[in-house]
C-alpha cells in the first residue's frame, strides 16, 4: 500500500509542466534518433546532459530515459521500412520486419511493434516498480566487500559480453578506471597524474570525454563513410491495422519478449541488443512453423522489439538500487544524477524516494506518449530517415562544441572532447568497445573506495572475504563465468553473443 | 580500412598502451603503495596500470601474430577525418576572438563542404540555420553566457 501511495505522489509530481515537457521532448528526440541511422541513443543522451542541468534530477532522469526508450521505439521504423536498423537493438527487426514490408504488411508490423513496445514498457515498469525498492532495501545491508564483488562480477561480464574479443573489453574497462584516478584523490587529498596542471586537479570531467567518445567519434565515423540514400516505403494511417491472425500470433511473443527482456536488462553489457537476439532465437525455437522466420513472421518482429523495450527498464534496477550501471546509457544517467548531487544506490530510496517514484510515474506517461506519437506519425518519422548526413552532422557537431563549452565555459573541456572524439573514432574502427570504458570511468571512484574500505576492514587479509557469503558467491560466479568462457569451447559448448555493438553503446 | 604494408597504426596504439600501463604502475609506486592493511594513494592505480599492461601485451601479441592490425582509413576517408578535426580545432581557436555566432556559422559551412554538400546556397542555408539554432537554444533559452567576439 505504501508503494501505491508513493506512486500516487509520483504522479502528482510528474504532472508538472517541466516534467511533462521533459518527458515529451525526451521521447520525441529519442524516436527521431532511433529512426536516424547513425546517431545512437547513448550519444544523444550525452548531448542532452547539459540541457538537463538547469532543472532538477528527476526532470533530467525522465528526459534521459525518454530518449533511451524513444530510441527503442523509433529504431524499428527504419528496420521495417528501409531494412536499415535505426540503432543496434533493431538489427534483428530487419530480418522479418522488412520481409513484412515487402509483403505489403509494413503498417501492421509497425503498429504491432508500437503496441508491443507499449506493453513491454508497461511490464518493465511494473517489474522495476516492484523489484527496485525490494533490492534497494536489501542492498542497504551491503558493505564495501559486497559492492567490490558486484563490480568485479559486472566487469567480468561486461568485458565478455560487449566485445568480440574479451581482452579488448577488459582493456577498455581498465583505461576507464585509470582515467578516473586523475586528479586529487578525495580519500587522502593526494594529487595523482596531474603533472602540475591545475586544470587536472579536479580530474577529467566526464561530459567532454563522453561527448567526444560517443558524439564526435560517431560524427567522424559517419562523415568518413560513403552515404547511400535510403528508399523509404510509404505507410498510410489506414495501413496500420493488423489483421486478426497477426494480432493472435503477436500476443504471446509480446508477453514472452517483455519478461525475457526485463531479466536480460539485469545483465551487464549491451542488454537491449542481446535481448533482441535471444528473443528472436526463442520465438523461432518454440514456433510450430519456424520456416516462416526470415520470410515475414510477425513473431520475429514483435518478440525482439518488446524485449528491447523492457530491457531498458530492467537495466534501471542495478543503476537505481546499487548505483552500478551495467550499460552505457545507464552510465550516462549515473553521471547526470551525480551532476545534480544525487547518488543512486540503496540510499536513494531513503534520501530521494521522490526521484524514484516521480520517475516511475513519468515513465508510465512517457510510454503512453510514445504510443500516441508513434502510431499516427510513423510516416512522418520514416521521412526523417532520408535527411542527409551532410545537413545533420554539422548541426550535431556544433551542439557538441557549444554544449560542452557551456557547462563550465572552458575551452580545455572542448579540447578534451575533440581528443576523445578522434581516439574514439579509431577505437570504433578497430572494434574496441567504448561502453566498458565509460562504465569504468563512471565506476572508477566507487571501485577504488570499495577496494580501500574492504582492505582496511579486513586489515589487509583478503581471505576474510570467505566470511561474506554474498561476496564469495558473486566472486564464484565471476570465476565460473571465466572458466566456462575459456573451457566451454573445449567441451563442445560455446558461450558467445556476437553482437555488432554499432552505435547503441 | 586498408592494411598498410609495414607499420600498422593499431599495433602502435596498443604498444603505446603497454608503455602507458607500465608508466602508470611506476608513477603510482612513487605516490606510495602502502600495504594491503594500510593502502596508500598509489596502490589502486598501480594495479590498474598493471592490468592495462597485461591486457595490452596479450592484445599486442595477438595483433602481431595474426597480422590483422588496422591502419588509417583509405585516402579519401583520411582526408575527411583530418579536415573535420581541423574544423573542430578552428572553432576552438577562433571562438574567443570572433564570437560563437560567427565561428559557428563558418565551422558549419566548412563541415558541409568537407562532407561534400554541393553548391554554396545549401551550405550557407545550413550554416545560417545552425548559427540561429545555437543562438536560440543556448543564448535565448538557456541563458548561457557565450563569447560574442566581434559582435560584442
Can you describe what's shown?
The complex is a heterodimer of chains A (505) and B (152). Helices cover 70% and strands 1% of the residues of chain A. Chain A is globular. Chain A has helices at 2-14, 17-35, 41-52, 57-82, 91-102, 106-139, 144-161, 166-179, 206-224, 244-264, 271-286, 299-314, 316-322, 328-339, 348-351, 353-374, 378-384, 389-408, 411-429, 435-457, 469-487; strands at 183-185, 190-192. In chain A, strand 1 (183-185) and strand 2 form a beta hairpin. Chain A has a two-stranded antiparallel ribbon with strand order 1-2. Chain A has one domain (2-231, 243-491). With 505 residues, chain A is mainly α. Chain A is built from 21 helices and 2 strands. Chain B is mainly α and 152 residues long. Chain B has 2 domains: 9-66; 75-151, no CATH class. Chain B is built from 5 helices and no strands. Chain B has helices at residues 9-31, 43-66, 75-98, 100-114, 121-141. In chain B, helix 1 (9-31) packs antiparallel against helix 2 (43-66) and helix 4 packs antiparallel against helix 5 (121-141). Chain B is flat, with a radius of gyration of 23 Å.
Q: What are the key terms here?
A:
heterodimer, A: 505 residues, mainly alpha, two-stranded antiparallel sheet, 21 helices, 2 strands, B: 152 residues, 2 domains, 5 helices, 0% strand, flat, disordered N terminus
Secondary-structure element series of chain B: HHHHH
Q: Please state the oligomeric state of the protein chains shown.
A: heterodimer
- Proportion of beta-strand residues of chain A: under 5%
How many β-strand stretches of chain A? 2
Q: Mean pLDDT score of chain B, rounded?
A: 87
| Domains of chain A, number | 1
Distance between the termini of chain A: 38 Å
Biggest sheet of chain A: strands, sense, closure?
2 strands, antiparallel
Stretches of chain A where pLDDT falls below 50 for ≥5 residues?
Answer: 493-505
Number of domains of chain B: 2
Tell me the span between the first and last alpha carbons of chain B.
46 Å
Helix content of chain A: 55-70%
Number of helices of chain B: 5
Instruction: Tell me the series of helices and strands of chain A, N- to C-terminal.
Output: HHHHHHHHEEHHHHHHHHHHHHH
Structural class of chain B: mainly alpha
Q: What would the principal axes of the Cα set say about the shape of chain A?
A: globular
> What is Rg of chain B?
23 Å
Amino acid at each position: 500500500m505504501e508503494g501505491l501511495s508513493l506512486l500516487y505522489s509520483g504522479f502528482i509530481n510528474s504532472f508538472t509542466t517541466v516534467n511533462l515537457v521533459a518527458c515529451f521532448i525526451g521521447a520525441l528526440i529519442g524516436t527521431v534518433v532511433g529512426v536516424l541511422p547513425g546517431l545512437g541513443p547513448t550519444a544523444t543522451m550525452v548531448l542532452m546532459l547539459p540541457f538537463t542541468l538547469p532543472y532538477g534530477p528527476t526532470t533530467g532522469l525522465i528526459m534521459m530515459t525518454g530518449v533511451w526508450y524513444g530510441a527503442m521505439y523509433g529504431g524499428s521504423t527504419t528496420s521495417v521500412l528501409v531494412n536499415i536498423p535505426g540503432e543496434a537493438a533493431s538489427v534483428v527487426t530487419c530480418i522479418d520486419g522488412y520481409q513484412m514490408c515487402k509483403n505489403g504488411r509494413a503498417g501492421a508490423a509497425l503498429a504491432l511493434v508500437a503496441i508491443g513496445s507499449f506493453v513491454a514498457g508497461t511490464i518493465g515498469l511494473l517489474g522495476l516498480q516492484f523489484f527496485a525498492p525490494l533490492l534497494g532495501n536489501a542492498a542497504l545491508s551491503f558493505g564495501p566487500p559486497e559492492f567490490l564483488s558486484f563490480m568485479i562480477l559486472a566487469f567480468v561480464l561486461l568485458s565478455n559480453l560487449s566485445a568480440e574479443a574479451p581482452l579488448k573489453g577488459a582493456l577498455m574497462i581498465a583505461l576507464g578506471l585509470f582515467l578516473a584516478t586523475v586528479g586529487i584523490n578525495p580519500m587522502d587529498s593526494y594529487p595523482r597524474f596531474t603533472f602540475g596542471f591545475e586544470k587536472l586537479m579536479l580530474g577529467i570531467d566526464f561530459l567532454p570525454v563522453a561527448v567526444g567518445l560517443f558524439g564526435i567519434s560517431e560524427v567522424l565515423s559517419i562523415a568518413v563513410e560513403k552515404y547511400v540514400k535510403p528508399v523509404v516505403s510509404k505507410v498510410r494511417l489506414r495501413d496500420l491495422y493488423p489483421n486478426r491472425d497477426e494480432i493472435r500470433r503477436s500476443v504471446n511473443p509480446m508477453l514472452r519478449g517483455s519478461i525475457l527482456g526485463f531479466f536480460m536488462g539485469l545483465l551487464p553489457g549491451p542488454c537491449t541488443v542481446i535481448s533482441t537476439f535471444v528473443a528472436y532465437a526463442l520465438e523461432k525455437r518454440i514456433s510450430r512453423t519456424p520456416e516462416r522466420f526470415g520470410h515475414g513472421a510477425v513473431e520475429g518482429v514483435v518478440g525482439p522489439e518488446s524485449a528491447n523495450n523492457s530491457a531498458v527498464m530492467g537495466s534501471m534496477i542495478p543503476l537505481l538500487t546499487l548505483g552500478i550501471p551495467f550499460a552505457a546509457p545507464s552510465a550516462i544517467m549515473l553521471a547526470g544524477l551525480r551532476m545534480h548531487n544525487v547518488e543512486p544506490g540503496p540510499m536513494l530510496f531513503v534520501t530521494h524516494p521522490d526521484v524514484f517514484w516521480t520517475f516511475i510515474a513519468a515513465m508510465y506517461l512517457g510510454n503512453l506518449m510514445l504510443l500516441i506519437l508513434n502510431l499516427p506519425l510513423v510516416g512522418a518519422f520514416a521521412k526523417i530517415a532520408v535527411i542527409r548526413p551532410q545537413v545533420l552532422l554539422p548541426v550535431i557537431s556544433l551542439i557538441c562544441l557549444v554544449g560542452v563549452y557551456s557547462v563550465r565555459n572552458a575551452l580545455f573541456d572542448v579540447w578534451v572532447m575533440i581528443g576523445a572524439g578522434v581516439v574514439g573514432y579509431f577505437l570504433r574502427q578497430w572494434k574496441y568497445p567504448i561502453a566498458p570504458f565509460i562504465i569504468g570511468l563512471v565506476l572508477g571512484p566507487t571501485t577504488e573506495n570499495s577496494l580501500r574500505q574492504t582492505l582496511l576492514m579486513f586489515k589487509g587479509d583478503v581471505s576474510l572475504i570467505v566470511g561474506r557469503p554474498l561476496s564469495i558467491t558473486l566472486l564464484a560466479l565471476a570465476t565460473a563465468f571465466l572458466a566456462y568462457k575459456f573451457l566451454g569451447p573445449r567441451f563442445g559448448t560455446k558461450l558467445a553473443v556476437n553482437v555488432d555493438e554499432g552505435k547503441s553503446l | 580500412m586498408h592494411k598498410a604494408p609495414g607499420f600498422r597504426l593499431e599495433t602502435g596504439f596498443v604498444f603505446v598502451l603497454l608503455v602507458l600501463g607500465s608508466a602508470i604502475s611506476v608513477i603510482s609506486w612513487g605516490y606510495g603503495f602502502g600495504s594491503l592493511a594500510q593502502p596508500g594513494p598509489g596502490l589502486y592505480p598501480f594495479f590498474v596500470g598493471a592490468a592495462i599492461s597485461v591486457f595490452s601485451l596479450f592484445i599486442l601479441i595477438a595483433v602481431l601474430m595474426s597480422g590483422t592490425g588496422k591502419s588509417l582509413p583509405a585516402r579519401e576517408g583520411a582526408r575527411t577525418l583530418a579536415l573535420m578535426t581541423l574544423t573542430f580545432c578552428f572553432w576552438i581557436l577562433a571562438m574567443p576572438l570572433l564570437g560563437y555566432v560567427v565561428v559557428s556559422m563558418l565551422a558549419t559551412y566548412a563541415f558541409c563542404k568537407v562532407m561534400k554538400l554541393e553548391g554554396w546556397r545549401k551550405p550557407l542555408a545550413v550554416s545560417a540555420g545552425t548559427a540561429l539554432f545555437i543562438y536560440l537554444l543556448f543564448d535565448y533559452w538557456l541563458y548561457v553566457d557565450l563569447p560574442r567576439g566581434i559582435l560584442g
